[in-house]
Design a protein that fits this description.
The complex is a heterodimer of chains A (325) and B (278).
Chain A lengths: L1 H5 L5 H12 L8 H30 L19 H9 L1 H32 L6 H14 L3 H10 L5 H8 L14 H11 L2 H13 L2 H9 L4 H29 L3 H7 L12 H11 L3 H29 L8
Helix pairs in contact in A: 3-15, 5-9, 5-10, 5-12, 5-14, 6-10, 7-13, 10-12, 12-15, 14-15
Chain B lengths: L1 H29 L3 H6 L11 H7 L6 H32 L5 H12 L3 H14 L10 H8 L4 H12 L3 H9 L4 H12 L1 H17 L2 H6 L8 H10 L6 H34 L3
Classes of the chains: A mainly alpha (325), B mainly alpha (278).
């Protein structure tokens, strides 16, 4: 847990104002201590039993050949075998890594770019702004479901709506979802389609940018592009950072759409084998819980590493203005 | 000049069309006859027929109504569990003073970023050892974790909300002789209603849409929830089931859509409060 725990405390924007509040507080009742732990007890119990113990257990399992079906006695300690197999003897593991990286690294920037672009279009009061905002947000609520993934896959099938659209331009389409070169692309489009949630967060961020900055820039004769790069982007960088962390982590965890497209196999030819889907196949189709545990730990370390890198590089481009309220 | 003024609304309208197209197409296709669903890719059917809904409803040995009831049970219990457990934890974090509070809070924030898939293997093994997997009521593994406030997002959302409640109210209540429990009961609980409503709505939608955990824990057809049941349509890839598959997909998205229509503003603002700033 250490890797993911240590960093996030510096996700400061939310905690900042509250910390200031805390300082000026009068001393409190002594019963607070007992009451505090009483109120916290369900959470503490959950932390222990649902999070901490399973984490340690999975670390242990990752060094065994546990299969869930037979009883505990038949479980054997296999040392680093699971990890060795993963890195050297399971080509599908590397396909899964590649697919997941490809998915997250393409879908996240596209999604955030769409979110920011549309947020800027909506960031001016006009009648209907609220309507558009809600409308663009809707896919974020529906897009993660099995139902929508089913629709999406059918849209990009040979007889799907996408090909009939291409037909207007005289282009003959194909079954995109069955083509190893394009299957993942359709899933990326599905992810980008859900740009509404980060858009809403960008909109809130844009509202915080002082209008005076733009006015001053206009007086100085700055072009719209100049204003975008020299005012909007820097002022928005904490929000961009927040969205980037959130969406990258989400991206790495994509499962449902890949499961639906490939009917749980990760095909065609492993092209939609997301990491979590491979983990599912190993654990619940092949009953290799030890191996799946090892995969989970590699995943955790990887996500921790990515988060750390994002936070580290964030120092160079995230700009926190002092006057923030 | 007029062109420039028209550019923005025009872009927005075009974009709305792209965003809405899949949804309208899904709705239209669900009302197409079997022949049309395979041959007519137009967004709306030539002839509207509700046949797919009847066919989809009874496509499997177990009625689809059953799957919806199961989904509703899981989602409903999750909503209650999240609201109660996260509110208790949030009150402790936001208002009470106790040893190691900062430490626990940091851990809580850490679990926010902890991917759920990392824990699913050992949790499954654990619940299986308890004998909770399968059986007459296989939903315990889906609900018990929520009873223990493991959905850190909602704890965080409520903490952020409570920090906006003026402390003077607590202090006044304490002067009037309220214990921390009294403050919780008479000040925080009534004032946290907006945060509870957000939590309830998001809990419902996320649980309703959740697939991975339900797929892992449910193995008996009769106990399937709607998303798991929908994947059966993919297995039975026969062309005859495409229409019914669309119809059931529409039905399974309907509750989320209705929630969206009813609570649109609240949902959009819920994202903001939890996302940044209190």
């Amino acid at each position: 847990m250490a890797t993911t725990t240590a960093r996030p405390s510096s996700t400061r924007p939310p905690a900042g104002p509250a910390a200031a509040q805390r300082r000026g507080r009068p001393a409190k009742h002594r019963t607070d201590g007992i009451a505090g732990y009483l109120f916290l007890s369900p959470w503490l119990l959950g932390l222990l039993t649902i999070t901490a113990v399973p984490m340690l257990m999975s670390l242990y399992l990752s060094f065994t050949n546990y299969d869930v079906l037979s009883d505990w006695e038949s479980m054997e300690w296999v040392g680093l075998d699971n990890y060795r197999t993963m890195f050297t003897e399971d080509p599908s593991f590397w396909h899964a890594v590649q697919t997941t990286l490809m998915f997250a690294l393409v879908a996240t920037p596209l999604k955030l770019a769409a979110a920011l672009g549309v947020a800027m279009l909506l960031n001016r009061p006009f009648s209907g702004a609220g309507l558009f905002r809600g409308l663009f947000y809707l896919p974020s609520l529906l897009g993660g479901s099995v139902a929508l993934a089913i629709v999406w896959v059918n849209m990009f099938n040979r007889d799907g709506a996408f090909n009939s659209f291409l037909g207007w331009f005289g282009i003959e389409g194909k079954a995109w979802v069955n083509d190893p070169d394009f299957a993942l692309g359709t899933l990326i489009l599905l992810a980008v389609w859900q740009f509404g949630a980060p858009m809403v967060i960008f909109l809130a961020g844009l509202k915080q940018v002082p209008v005076e900055l733009y006015e001053a820039a206009s007086v100085d004769g700055a072009s719209p592009w100049r204003k975008f790069f020299n005012i909007t982007l820097p002022m928005l960088s904490p929000v961009i950072f927040f969205n980037l962390v959130l969406e990258t982590i989400n991206g790495f965890q994509g499962f449902t759409s890949a499961f639906v497209l490939s009917n749980g196999t990760g095909g065609p030819v492993d092209s939609t084998l997301m990491y979590t889907l491979h983990l599912y196949i190993k654990g619940w189709n092949e009953y290799q819980m030890g191996y799946a545990s090892a995969m989970a730990w590699v995943f955790l370390l990887f996500i921790g590493l990515v988060t750390a890198v994002v936070f580290r590089t964030g120092r160079f481009w995230v700009h926190y203005s002092d006057g923030e309220d | 000049m007029t062109l420039q003024r028209l550019a923005r609304p025009l872009t927005l309208v075009l974009l709305s069309a792209v965003v809405l197209y899949p949804l309208v197409w899904m709705l239209g296709s669900s009302f197409k006859s079997q022949e049309e669903v395979l041959n007519n890719m137009a967004i709306l059917p030539n002839v509207w027929t509700p046949g797919n809904y009847a066919a989809g409803w009874s496509n499997f040995d177990v009625s689809f109504g059953r799957f919806f009831v199961n989904s509703a049970v899981v989602a409903g219990l999750t909503v209650v569990a999240n609201c109660v457990s996260c509110l208790l934890a949030a009150y402790a974090f936001a208002r009470l003073k106790f040893k190691l509070r900062g430490f626990w809070f940091a851990i809580m924030i850490g679990t926010l970023l902890l991917p759920g898939h990392v824990l699913i293997v050992p949790q499954f093994v654990m619940f299986k050892t308890f004998g909770w997997v399968g059986g007459d009521w296989p939903y315990a593994p889906l609900i018990v974790p929520q009873l223990l406030a493991t959905e850190a997002f909602f704890v965080f959302l409520m903490v952020q909300f409570m920090r906006g409640v003026p402390r003077e109210l607590d202090e006044a209540a304490i002067i009037d002789g309220c214990t921390p429990f009294g403050v919780f009961r008479h000040v925080i609980l009534p004032l946290s209603r907006p945060a509870l409503v957000s939590t309830a709505i998001f809990s419902f939608i996320w649980t309703w849409n959740d697939f991975f955990r339900q797929l892992v824990y449910l193995s008996d057809l009769e106990k399937y929830t709607a998303p798991v049941a929908l994947t059966l349509f993919i297995d039975s890839s026969g062309q005859s089931s495409v229409g019914p598959m669309f119809a059931m997909s529409v039905l399974s998205l309907a509750p989320v859509f209705l929630f969206f229509v009813a609570f649109q503003r609240l949902l959009v603002e819920g994202i903001n409060t939890s996302g940044l700033k209190g």
